[in-house]
Structures are given as structure tokens and as C-alpha cells.
């Protein structure tokens, strides 16, 4: 049995795969974000139950492909660690670690909506904006493990003519105007507040737009402009032929369909079939991606 896990800031979703690639055992436990010993115990206990002989992890945070160092703002006990080596030493079995967004794209390319596509750029539209690039079944990680991370770098600028007219928000990375500040579920809410001066949850905004509510529809329309243009430019650069979407906003299918239309309108090469599509694997994507990454 191969033990695989999807490690997030709130929970560790952990499961054992058999040789046929099916999940035979599964458990979800709270993530011990600040306790390394407890973090190791989660995996040691699972190995004891499943008799697994190796571990593969998809985790929130950057994974440097050269040093193996993990940078994780939300899971303090693994931040700055060469996680694969440290966990392998503690558990006595081989360990593989990949970024969770990369795992999502890898899973969708291998078993999901992107089967048959050589180059896949997947995006996460959840609490934040993330992404990953997979080419012929392999993760393109890039220097420092930031390959596919399209949420940072300023895309919205302050107007010199009318200060305050554009939605320029500070980002957690230290910059301002990043796509992460507007493209995520929280960003959609932030944009709605900026445009209309009212608070609303992302699901209320997307459902309102679908129902034809004027303010919600205006927010979604602007959001699609702000996100669709950069995504189209990125597709020109990497030549991906499909964009699976994960994260909470992937469940808003009307929103994703509108974003897809905006992206295709910005492409130099016309596309008749949808390109930006909700992922197919749902909550299983992280575990499946970790399994596929282990080879």
C-alpha cells in the first residue's frame, strides 16, 4: 500500500492506495500546524494501520525542487524544512512531497477533465489564487518551486488620473494589486464591496449573478475581465490547451463558464470548445495527485 496525503492548513486528508491506484483506506484529521511531533504521528499512525511502505504528500506551500525546502505560511511546523528528508528520517520510509496545486493539475491530467492533453495549466480559485503546469504528465516546477503560481505580481494599478478608481488592494505577499487580491473567492467579495459598498459572501454573489441580480452581475462581469485577460496571456505564453479549475469557485459553474468565454475572446487562436472548465475529481484530486507524483 502507498500512503498519500493532502495537507492543508485545516486538515490532513490521508489515504492508502493499492497497486491498481484505488483508495482502500482513508482518514481526515486536523492539521497539527505548530507541532512537528504530532505531524509525524499522523503519518506514523496511518502507516501502522495500512502497512504502507512509502509516503507521498501534496501540501499547501512552495516546494523548492532543488533543495526540497518547503515554504508554508499556514503550517508552521513544516515551514523551512526539507520535509521529504525529515519525514523520511522520522518514519523510516521514502517520502515524496509536491505542492498541492501541482498535485491538483497532475491528477486532472492523469484521471480527470484534462486526460489526453499534453500541456495542462490548472488554476485554484479558492481562499487564494494558485496554479500549476503539467507537461506530458510531469510537473513543471520552476526555480524555487513557483512554476504555475500566477496569483502574484501587480496586474491592477492605481489610476494617476482618478486615484481610488481602480480596485488596488494590498496582498499578503507584500505587493499591491496582485491577481490573488481579486481573483480568489475572498477577492470576489472584496471587489463586490469596492464596487457597491456592501458585504456579501462569494456564493451569494455568484448565485445572485446567475439569478440576474444587477449588482452581483456587475461584480462578476468585472471579475471576469480582471481575471480573464491575464489568464489568456498566460495561455499564450505556456500554450496549454485546457485549464481545469479547483477551489471553492470551481463549484460556481456559471461563473467558470463566463470566465471561459472571456478567456477565449482574448485568445489569438480561436477556440470553439471550452478551455477553462471545473475539475472533475473534487476532493480526491490532492490525494490522486500525490499518488501520481510518486510514480
General description of the model:
The protein has 295 residues and is α/β, with parallel strands linked by helices. The chain is built from nine helices and twelve strands. It has helices at residues 36-50, 83-91, 100-111, 180-183, 185-196, 202-210, 214-238, 253-265, 285-294, and strands at residues 2-7, 11-17, 23-30, 55-59, 62-63, 70-71, 95-99, 119-125, 129-135, 138-139, 243-246, 276-278. β11, α8 and β12 form a beta-alpha-beta unit. The chain is globular and about 60 Å long.
Helix content: 25-40%
- Classify the beta-strand content into a percent band: 15-25%
State the total count of DSSP E strands: 12
Helical stretch tally: 9
The arrangement of helices and strands along the chain is EEEHEEEHEHEEEHHHHEHEH
Q: Kindly name the structural category.
A: alpha/beta
Largest sheet: 5 strands, mixed
What is the 3D form? globular
Major sheet strand order: 3-2-1-4-7
Residue runs with pLDDT of under 50 for 5 or more positions = none
Question: What integer value in Å does the Rg equal?
Answer: 20 Å
| Terminal CA distance | 13 Å
Q: What value does the average pLDDT take?
A: 95
Descriptive labels:
295 residues; alpha/beta; five-stranded mixed sheet; 9 helices; 12 strands
Summarize the structure.
The chain has 295 residues and is an alpha/beta fold. It is built from nine helices and twelve strands.
Topology of this protein?
Blueprint: E1 2-7, E2 11-17, E3 23-30, H1 36-50, E4 55-59, E5 62-63, E6 70-71, H2 83-91, E7 95-99, H3 100-111, E8 119-125, E9 129-135, E10 138-139, H4 180-183, H5 185-196, H6 202-210, H7 214-238, E11 243-246, H8 253-265, E12 276-278, H9 285-294
Parallel strand pairs: 1-4, 4-7, 8-11, 11-12
Antiparallel strand pairs: 1-2, 2-3, 5-6, 8-9, 9-10
Helix pairs in contact: 3-9, 5-7, 6-7, 7-8
Amino acid at each position: 500500500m502507498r500512503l498519500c496525503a493532502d495537507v492543508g492548513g485545516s486538515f490532513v486528508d490521508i489515504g492508502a492506495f493499492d497497486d491498481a491506484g484505488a483508495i482502500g483506506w482513508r482518514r481526515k484529521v486536523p492539521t497539527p500546524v505548530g507541532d512537528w511531533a504530532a505531524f509525524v504521528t499522523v503519518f506514523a499512525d496511518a502507516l501502522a494501520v495500512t502497512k504502507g511502505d512509502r509516503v507521498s504528500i501534496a501540501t499547501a506551500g512552495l516546494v523548492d525542487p532543488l533543495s526540497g525546502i518547503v515554504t508554508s505560511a499556514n503550517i508552521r511546523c513544516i515551514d523551512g524544512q526539507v520535509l521529504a528528508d525529515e519525514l523520511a528520517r522520522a518514519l523510516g520510509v521514502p517520502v515524496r512531497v509536491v505542492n498541492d496545486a501541482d498535485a491538483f493539475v497532475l491528477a486532472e491530467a492523469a484521471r480527470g477533465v484534462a486526460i489526453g492533453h499534453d500541456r495542462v495549466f490548472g488554476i485554484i480559485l479558492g481562499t487564494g489564487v494558485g496554479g500549476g503546469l503539467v507537461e506530458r504528465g510531469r510537473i513543471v516546477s520552476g526555480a524555487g518551486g513557483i512554476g504555475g503560481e500566477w496569483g502574484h505580481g501587480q496586474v491592477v494599478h492605481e489610476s494617476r488620473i482618478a486615484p481610488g478608481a481602480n480596485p488596488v488592494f494590498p496582498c499578503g505577499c507584500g505587493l499591491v494589486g496582485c491577481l490573488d487580491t481579486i481573483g480568489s473567492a475572498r477577492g470576489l467579495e472584496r471587489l463586490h464591496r469596492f464596487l457597491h459598498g456592501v458585504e456579501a459572501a462569494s456564493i451569494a454573489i455568484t448565485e445572485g449573478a446567475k439569478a440576474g441580480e444587477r449588482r452581483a452581475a456587475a461584480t462578476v462581469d468585472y471579475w471576469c475581465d480582471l481575471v480573464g485577460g491575464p489568464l489568456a496571456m498566460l495561455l499564450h505564453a505556456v500554450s496549454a490547451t485546457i485549464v481545469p479549475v479547483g477551489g471553492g469557485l470551481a463549484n460556481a459553474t456559471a461563473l467558470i463558464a463566463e470566465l471561459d468565454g472571456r478567456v477565449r475572446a482574448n485568445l489569438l487562436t480561436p477556440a470553439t470548445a471550452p478551455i477553462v472548465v471545473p475539475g472533475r475529481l473534487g476532493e480526491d484530486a490532492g490525494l490522486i495527485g500525490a499518488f501520481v507524483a510518486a510514480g
